[in-house]
Queue: 2 jobs
Job 1
Amino acid sequence: MARLGPFRTVLGLALAACAVGCTTPGPQPGPDSRGAGRCGGEPMFAAGGERATLWVRSSSEFRAASQTIYRAARDALAAGLADPAWTAEPSQSGDLSALPPAVVMDIDETVLDNSEPQAEMILNGTCFDDFPATWDAWLAKRSAPAVAGAAEFIRAARSMKDPDGRPVRVFFITNRECVRRAGVESACPQQDDTAANLAALGLGSPTLADDLMLKGERPEWESEKLARREAVASSHRIVLNVGDDLADFLPGVRRATLAERDAARCTREDWWGRRWFLLPNPMYGSWLVTLGQDLDAALAAEPAIPGDCPGR
Ligand SMILES: [Mg+2]
């Protein structure tokens, strides 16, 4: 493969990440890449991204990893339900037995697998300008498959109860954004699409429309998910949180440095794998945005963060 500018890859993946709620960098000029000339503009993807997308799209390893995480999450949920002081939301503490139990989950690359449009955008050389329409068309297809283990986990969670017999309610906090669509009356067709996609996977529920919390659905529901977690925490004990991005769990990490992000990870170091469960996403995320546009420099640098948290 020809040596191509790494920043183009970063930009493409960062934009893909922005489809699910990150800060969007401005377009950058760069070398030619696959798809150039086809779209008549700047393609989103240059080199790279293929291996990460194929790992998600085609590997048994990814499926085994996500099944592993979801089965561990199910066991942790059972343990957490039994303890009225157990919470996965830092703003909650003390005896929370007055609140019914809930699980908070992200949608993209946590419950629904979007490797198909990722692959198509790489192959087609999708342009920056075409990305929002491409992403919205994908949502409108309502055909994303489930991440391995996710559907089994959600069904199991909804069947579980706390010691007072109250069932677990699953809330989906997603940065799929409410955007008007031509010819559609709904103010948030993306919510309808996501609900239909989940229902097609056997994950519908009578409260699903209320359980889906999209970016922009309310003015204060921005990319930062804290306001939505706090909204859930006002009425429910959040027993477990499942996502694929550090920002699904911790506030203020989208524009932080690598060191700051990892310091945030370490603030609740003992929650990972017990109250917080993170699915691997090598395709995009706030981690990639944080690395910046020069991946060669990032590769050449000494590891910026240690494996263990301070004091461990
Ligand atoms: Mg996600």
Note: Residues 1-33 have pLDDT under 50 and may be disordered.
Job 2
Amino acid sequence: MQAEDDVTMTRTGPGTRCGALMRRYWQPVALSEELAPERPLVASRLLGEDLVVFRNPDHTLGLLQRACAHRAADLAYGRLEDGGVRCHFHGWLFAPDGRCLEVPAEPVGSPFASKVRIGAYPVRERNGILWGYLGPGTPPELPSLDCFAAPDAYTFAFKGYLDCNWLQALEVGIDPVHASYLHRFETDDDVEASYGLQFRGVSLGSDMPMTKILREYGRPEIINSRTDYGQRIVALRVLDGVGQDGSAAHVRITHQVFPHGITIPLSPTMSITQWHVPIDDVSCYWYAMFTSLDEPVDRATMRRQRVEAVTLPDYKPVRNRANGYGFDPREQRMLTYTGLGPDINVHDQMAVEGQGRIHDRTRERLARSDRAIITYRRMLLEAIAAVAEGGSPEILLRDTGDVDSRGPIPLDAIGPTEEWQQVWGEAIAAQRAASPWAKDLTAALPTGPAGGVGEVETDEP
Ligand code: FES
Ligand SMILES: [Fe+2]
């Protein structure tokens, strides 16, 4: 990778080329749960910009620059009153749309306030997350994805901090091989106790624990193709080991959702759509939207499982760089590949933070298993160039799928090696037909997007 391309892809602050691309898309600003009932206002740093997001008593939302337009006092400590945020320094009051409503120390009748504005962005709330649009012009609609189409009760949102650049955080999510190594467990848990946990259940169509498959088949065939939402990534593991004859295969289909999301399966009926959002160039948050097809989500359980692993209010992992991630060499020998315990988020965290605050891609030696990452970087650079030339990144901005939801539908399943695409397409279509909220939606092809899947990417450089 050229150093110039690496810099282009990783820098997202105001005035940068990748920043201009990212600003064409809605970005997660905060979790809804961060807006505390007593004072629903929270600071957020996003794409190198410091902001505050708040909810007025009439439920209107505001997303403003954090520094007061007067003399830059911190509006994170402002007073939420009179239809906006009032700065605690000299009492200037700002409306959600950025207008200055009052400058109380000015003479009575002064028109001064009407000439003042503060930076303000469109904001909306959907399924547990507040979304901001930091780009030019009219914002696009949120794309037609299951995580947005599902009713609130069928979703759960959470987030976590990573002490590194956003791109390496995304790239671990489109690297299907690492699951056989980084997330390897030497024992298989009770799959009955796997609710809400990644890689601890069984694959659809079998009673074989996912942990066993990932451990025993570490050389999947990766079939990746560009789609009109990003990329579809298939990891195929033909089960031809001891006691198996190769007639069955493990199929794992995940998706890259442009520009910085992934969709992966958690269980046969629950998916995770995860966005990798730059705080600035050296830190990011992942925002995960869990979406259930069949039943409302048990939020209390899922939140409890995750909140124990972070400190609030920053959602920073308890295990981190500063304490060596709680690394245990004995555990690494006996139980897990990493020696970090069972939480796969910590595994991913150690892997990507270990690459450095901003991973230097000129030092890489990419292999065949990195093909989805290679494709993604090409797509990202093409989209960045399109915006820099005054055009549109296109992907997922104008929803051309002509469906209520394009999914994209992830899958983790075991079935016949031949015809896997058709078998699982029909199985997922049946699941959607049984879903209380998805059954009436016109949906994308069960294992791919509406509009078809592009050519499978080749190994050509
Ligand atoms: S700095 Fe905010 S009102 Fe003066
Ligand atoms: Fe991972």
Note: The first strand starts at residue 27 and ends at 31.
